[in-house]
Specification:
The protein has 248 residues and is of the alpha/beta class. It is 32% helix and 21% strand.
Length: 248
C-alpha cells in the first residue's frame, strides 16, 4: 500500500505507553539537548494519561555521554542501557528490546515505539503528533529532518541538500525514512521481525519490512525534527555520510 494512500481507520485501544529509544555513541555535546527536548515532548497535555519510557543506548561511549544523559524527566522514566556493538542498528534494536521489557505487562497494541538520534532535537508535539497518526490508523510513521546550523558544511552541501529535500518532498507521502524521526506500533514492530540485522540503513530496512508484512506505514508531512549537520560521522551510512556524499 502506498504511503500516499488514505490510511484505513483501525480499531485500537487507547495508547497506554510510549517508549522512546535514543542510540548514542560519543555524544557528550548533544545528548543533553536531545533528552531535554524529549522530556518536553513527554509532558505534552495529550500524553497526560500515557506513560513515557525513554531508553538511551550508550553504545561503546568513552566520553561523558553517560554522565550528561542524566536529564530529569518530570513526565516519564529514563533508562540507560550500555552496549558495545558500535552499530546504530543493533543499538536501536537493543533499546527497543529493553523498552519492550520495561513494558512487558502491557498489551503490544497499546504500546507505541518512537526513535530518534542523540544529535537531534524533537519538537514539543513530536510524540503527540505520532499518537494522533496512530489513532488515525497508522502502524508506523516516518517524519522528516531539517538542519538549522550549517556552520560545519560548505554552502554547496546546504544547497544540494535543499534540492534533495524538494525532490523527495516534505509533505504527506514524502520519500524520506530517518531513524532520527520514526515511530511505530509495538505489535507491528514485532510482527515485521524487528530491526533487520544490516550494517547500513537499518531504518530503511525496517520500513521495508513493515510494508512487506502488510502493515500501513505513513510518511507524514507534519512531523519534522532538527538534526546536526556535523562533518564527523558517528554511524556509517548515517546523515553525516549523506551530507558528505552531497559534497563530492
Amino acid at each position: 500500500m502506498s504511503t500516499r494512500s488514505r490510511v484505513p481507520k483501525l480499531i485500537r485501544p487507547p495508547a497506554a505507553a510510549v517508549a522512546v529509544v535514543v542510540p548514542a555513541h560519543e555524544e557528550q555535546e548533544s545528548i543533553g539537548a536531545c533528552l531535554r527536548s524529549i522530556a518536553l515532548a513527554a509532558g505534552h497535555p495529550h500524553l497526560a494519561h500515557v506513560a513515557v519510557h525513554v531508553v538511551v543506548v550508550l553504545d561503546d561511549c568513552t566520553d561523558d555521554t553517560a554522565d550528561r544523559a542524566g536529564v530529569t524527566f518530570r513526565h516519564g522514566r529514563l533508562d540507560r542501557l550500555v552496549v558495545h556493538s558500535r552499530n546504530v542498528g543493533q543499538a536501536r534494536a537493543a533499546g527497543i528490546d529493553r523498552a519492550l521489557g520495561l513494558t512487558g505487562g502491557l498489551e503490544l497494541d497499546r504500546l507505541w515505539l518512537a526513535t530518534t538520534d542523540a544529535d537531534t532535537v524533537v519538537p514539543p508535539d513530536w510524540l503527540a503528533r505520532q499518537l494522533a497518526w496512530r489513532d488515525r490508523g497508522a502502524d508506523a510513521v516516518a517524519g522528516t529532518v531539517r538542519v538549522t546550523d550549517w556552520a560545519e558544511q560548505p554552502t554547496s552541501v546546504r544547497r544540494r541538500f535543499l534540492v534533495r529535500q524538494r525532490q523527495l518532498g516534505t509533505g504527506a507521502g514524502h520519500g524520506h525514512v530517518h531513524g532520527a524521526n520514526l515511530g511505530l506500533a509495538a505489535d507491528s514492530y514485532c510482527q515485521s521481525g524487528g530491526v533487520p540485522p544490516v550494517a547500513l540503513a537499518e531504518d530503511h530496512a525496517l520500513w521495508a519490512a513493515l510494508r512487506a508484512s502488510g502493515r500501513h506505514p505513513v510518511a507524514a508531512g507534519d512531523l519534522a525534527v532538527t538534526t546536526s549537520a556535523r562533518r564527523e560521522s558517528r554511524a556509517p551510512g548515517g546523515f553525516s555520510d549523506l551530507l558528505r556524499d552531497l559534497g563530492t
